[in-house]
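input
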Amino acid sequence: MAVKFEKKGSALRVMIQGDFDMKICAQLKKEIDAILDREMIHQVIFDLTFVPFIDSSGLGVILGRYRKLAPTGGKVTLVGANRQVYRILELSGFTKVMSVEKETMREAR
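output
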């Protein structure tokens, strides 16, 4: 599992490579929250292009950042989800409360 962070203006892009599951969630949450606490971030973009699988722990990390940003008008955006990951996000109701963009260039891995 590899995670990279990229800040542009008031947006933080979180690029995840590998399964987005309980193995990485506690540390990832700490790292994102530390950035949110010290920077003026209004949007977190989770780049899921290289995420073949997401479990409830990964969903919890995303939802927690959504709840942290929403009261101040901030937003969470999910990009690059393959078919399987998109379906999990859709069934979990994420597509109704935040912007979720499917992977368009490749078939699901």
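quick obs: Strands lie at 2-8, 11-17, 43-50, 75-81, 99-102.
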